Every structure is written in structure tokens, then in C-alpha cells.
């Protein structure tokens, strides 16, 4: 997180915002966890949206799998001199041509392996899984789950949070549950998470604090348990896990999830409840995913009358009455 502090510090020190493309794109200030989002938020805040993130914008050509560069940073720079300097710098930093070459190689290998692959991918997606995870570059959703393109609908943010008032996360949730019909939702945290570390340190990261405070709140909820752990690393590992569990509970609390679960339960005559919600933690040091125990009733206790938006017992009674009449 020291790197994140560097971003904030350097941004404040650079009032000449057009040059900040260089700052923004400089690998010197990349955070090891979630760098892009941190840069984007800080940059926009400090310069009142005069800067965007054009250097990172590219498009994915769905049907062919070929990445197409839409525009480059140079078109957003303030002068031709600036353009040349920035373009040259970007070539060194991002090596876009290399990425495009990688993409072509990937397309070829996929076609060689399965000539129909892109024909299928170009049609509608039907993923069974919705994944909420951290933006950390070491935790690629598809790869750690062993799933290919089209098999998992993904939402990632700093600290794998599912805030109940986050329009972005809730839109992803609703689309995945109501329109794609995912059957399982997986919240995945990871050890050595920069967001979790930042949220347990005494520092003010500006706007980021509004986001990280959600993790600080998780600590407050589990203070008794966490304070028993004297070792700082053990405390970190436990907080990573508890944060995942709290995000799972946040999902259970939503009307989208509760409504769909009661609908599928009724439709299947009580044999199914979708979507199911799972909590997992990934360890970047060995690549292992660990499943966590997430028992909503045990965690929420006797507050079903508060969090339960539907009367499940009534639904079961009604169904049984209908069946017997
Ligand atoms: Zn993380």
C-alpha cells in the first residue's frame, strides 16, 4: 500500500494536469493490488475529471476474440510534443503491440484447438456462475476456477466488496440472476490483499477511504474475534476471510437473491434454491482456493424477521396446501 500512498502524494504534487498522463501511466506508481482503479479514482478526483483513462481504453471484438485498439493516449494530449513524449512513454510502459500479438497467438491456438470455438463464443453467453472478486491482478477469475470464456460472469473491485448501495455491483447481480439465470454466486477474497491491509492501517488515502471503510466496518463487527489474534499476519488472514463472509451475507440480504431463491424453490417443489452463495479465499502463494463456511442463519441469528424480505415458511405452507387441495 505504500505505492498507493505514492500515487496520492505525487498526484497532489503535480498541478500541471496534462503531464499527469505520464504519472498515470507510469509503472513506477502502479500498486501491486488493484492499481488501475486506484489511479483512476485519485486522478479524477484531483483534477476534476479533466483527465480520463484513455491510455487504458481498448475494445474487445466479441465475435472474433480480437482486441481492437480504439484510440490512444496521444489524441488526448495537449500538444504534439506532449503526444510524442506520451506515446513513446506508453510504448515502453504498456507495449500494446505485444499485447495485440499475444491476442493473435491466443486466437490461433484456440482455433487450432477447436475450430468452432469463436462461433460459439460469438453467440449469447450462458454462464452458470457469477463471481465477485478483488481487482488484484494475481487473481484472474476464469483461470483460478479453471473456466473458459463464457462460463463465468465477473465483477471485480478493490477488496471484493458487495456494498448494498453500490449501483455497479447490484446491477451486475441483478443482470446475472434475473437475466442470465446463474445458479451459483462465488465471492472470492485473497490473502495478501492490499485493500485489506490498507483498511487496517492508520492512514488517510483520501477518497479511497470511503470504500475501504467498508472493510474497517467488517473489522468492527468481528472485533472480539480479531483482537484475540496477536500475530498481525494471522489477523490479516482472518480479516480476509471474514470480509468474504460479510459480502456473502450482503448478497443474501438483497431482494434479487431472496426473490429468485423463493421462486426457484417453489418452481422445483422444494428441491432447489437458486442462486446458491459460496465464499472462497485464494492464496496467491500456492494458487489454492479454499471454501469458507457461510451459514446465513447462523450468522444472522434470529434476525430473519429483519433481513428476510419474504416469508419462506408461508411459501412452503402455501405450496403444501396447494398440493393437497
Ligand atoms: Zn485484493
Give your account of this protein's structure.
By secondary structure, the protein is α/β, with parallel strands linked by helices. The chain folds into 2 domains: 2-118, no CATH class; 126-324, Beta-carbonic Anhydrase, Chain A. Helices cover 52% and strands 11% of the residues. It is flat. The termini are far apart. The chain binds zinc ion. Zinc ion (ZN) binds at residues 33, 134, 136, 159, 190, 193-195.
Structurally, how many domains make up the residues? 2
Q: Could you list the spans in which at least 5 consecutive residues all have pLDDT below 50? A: 1-80
Do you know the CATH topology of the largest domain? Beta-carbonic Anhydrase, Chain A
Proportion of residues in helical segments: 40-55%
**Biggest β-sheet description:** 5 strands, mixed
What integer value in Å does the Rg equal? 23 Å
Mean pLDDT: 77
Strand content: 5-15%
Give me the secondary-structure category: alpha/beta
Question: Which homologous superfamily in CATH is the superfamily of the largest domain?
Answer: Carbonic anhydrase
Distance between the termini: 63 Å
The H-and-E topology, N to C, reads as HHHEEHHHEHEHEHHHHHEEHHH
Number of helices: 16
Q: Report the strand count.
A: 7
Any idea what the shape is?
flat
Amino acid at each position: 500500500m505504500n505505492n498507493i500512498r505514492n500515487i496520492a502524494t505525487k498526484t497532489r504534487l503535480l498541478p500541471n494536469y496534462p503531464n499527469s498522463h505520464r504519472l498515470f501511466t507510469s509503472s513506477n506508481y502502479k500498486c501491486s493490488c488493484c492499481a488501475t482503479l486506484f489511479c483512476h479514482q485519485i486522478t479524477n478526483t484531483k483534477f476534476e475529471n479533466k483527465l480520463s483513462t484513455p491510455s487504458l481504453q481498448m475494445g474487445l471484438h466479441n465475435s472474433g476474440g480480437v482486441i481492437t485498439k480504439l484510440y490512444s493516449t496521444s489524441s488526448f494530449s495537449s500538444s504534439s510534443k506532449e503526444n510524442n513524449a506520451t506515446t513513446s512513454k506508453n510504448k515502453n510502459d504498456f507495449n500494446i503491440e505485444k499485447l495485440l500479438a499475444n491476442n493473435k497467438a491466443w486466437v490461433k491456438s484456440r482455433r487450432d484447438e477447436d475450430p468452432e470455438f469463436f462461433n460459439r463464443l460469438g453467440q449469447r453467453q450462458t454462464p452458470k456462475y457469477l463471481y465477485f472478486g478483488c481487482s488484484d491482478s494475481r487473481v484472474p477469475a476464469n483461470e483460478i476456477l479453471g473456466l473458459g470464456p463464457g462460463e463465468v460472469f465477473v465483477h471485480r473491485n478493490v477488496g471484493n466488496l458487495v456494498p448494498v448501495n453500490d449501483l455497479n455491483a447490484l446491477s451486475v447481480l441483478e443482470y446475472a440472476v434475473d437475466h442470465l439465470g446463474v445458479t451459483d454466486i462465488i465471492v472470492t477474497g485473497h490473502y495478501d490483499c492490499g485493500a485489506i491491509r490498507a483498511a487496517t492501517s492508520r492512514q488517510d488515502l483520501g477518497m479511497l477511504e470511503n470504500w475501504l471503510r467498508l472493510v474497517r466496518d467488517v473489522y468492527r463487527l468481528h472485533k472480539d474475534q480479531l483482537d484475540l489474534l496477536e500475530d498481525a499476519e494471522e489477523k490479516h488472514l482472518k480479516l480476509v476471510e471474514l470480509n468474504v463472509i460479510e459480502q456473502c451475507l450482503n448478497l443474501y440480504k438483497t431482494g434479487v437473491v431472496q426473490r429468485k431463491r423463493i421462486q426457484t424453490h417453489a418452481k422445483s417443489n422444494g428441491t432447489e434454491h437458486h442462486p446458491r452463495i459460496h465464499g472462497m479465499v485464494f492464496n496467491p502463494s500456492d494458487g489454492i482456493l479454499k471454501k469458507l463456511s457461510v451459514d446465513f442463519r447462523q450468522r444472522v441469528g434470529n434476525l430473519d424477521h429483519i433481513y428476510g424480505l419474504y416469508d419462506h415458511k408461508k411459501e412452503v405452507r402455501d405450496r403444501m396446501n396447494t398440493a393437497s387441495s
